Amino acid sequence: MSDALLLEKQGHTAVITMNNPPANTWTVESLKQLTELVAQLNADREVFALVLRSTSEKFFCAGADLKLFADGDRSMARDMARGFGEAFEALSNFRGVSIAAINGFAMGGGLEVALACDIRVAEEQAQMALPEAKVGLLPCAGGTQNLTMLVGEGWTKRMILLGERLKAPQAKEIGLVEELVPTGGAFERAMELAKQAEQQSPMSIANCKQLIQNNRHQHWDAGYILERELFVDLFFSEDQKEGVNAFLEKRAPEWKNR
Predict the structure, then answer these.
(1) Parallel, antiparallel, or unpaired for β 127-129 and 105-107?
(2) Could you tell me which residues come within 8 angstroms of residue 35 by beta carbon, excluding any fewer than 6 positions away?
(3) I want to staple 23 with a disulfide (CB 3.0 to 4.6 A). Which of 59, 95, 96, 257 is the partner?
(4) HSE-up of residue 213 (Cα within 13 Å, Cβ side)
């Protein structure tokens, strides 16, 4: 794999670092790499959480390199759209808790990758936008859908149709990010949240996340039924017994993720 994305593990938390200077722009290759890394982490039963961060002090991620689209090549457009879709849907469907540590500009596909995560922590100087329509394009990596689900149609239309750029405090105010931290603090806080996730049953997290995101595809009524089914399914796992008995015995559970 290339060095555009770096993977390390700290306890039960995987850290993916975007490392494509100067602005961490996405390429067909790095999008494929992200898809493969998420699949690898899903198969690793020791991984409960994922933190996404940047090596750049200025940019979290600036999205796609517009030079790729300068000559109007539809084949390149299809390849990038497919790559974005597969990579960010894989990230959204990661079985654990995913946290974006936004430490700078998150633009276009850079904001969309954060939207594909479960939780977003932003430093106070960060700025976010989906400016694709200003250059004759549109968000194709889930932005139109995920942003609407997160902040509603009004703010989504302001950001996409009007091209508004939001500073982190305003992004926190409208629910685009869940937490605001001082400059330099996003990764540390994201890791603290990941440690909280490590205390939860990873199997319970996977099922709860599936249920929370279920209404993206199905009616609420289907979710109620699935909720009860998955509750019973947990009783086939070792972790269900471990969790209940650890509570009754007043000790910390030892999760096996099976």
Answers:
(1) parallel
(2) 83, 86, 87, 90
(3) 59
(4) 18
Q: What CATH number was assigned to the domain covering residues 5-198? A: 3.90.226.10
Percent of the chain residues topping a pLDDT of 90: 90
Joined together, the tokens standing for residue 178 give 């869940």
- pTM to 2 decimals? 0.94
How do residues 194-227 score in pLDDT, each as one tens digit?
999 999 999 999 999 999 999 888 888 999 999 9
Q: How far is residue 181's CA from residue 159's CA, in Å, rounded to a whole number?
A: 22
Region 75-101: mean pLDDT is 95
Question: How is the chain split into domains, by residue range?
Answer: 5-198, 202-248
Structure tokens at 171: 């992004």
Q: Known catalytic residues? A: 112, 132
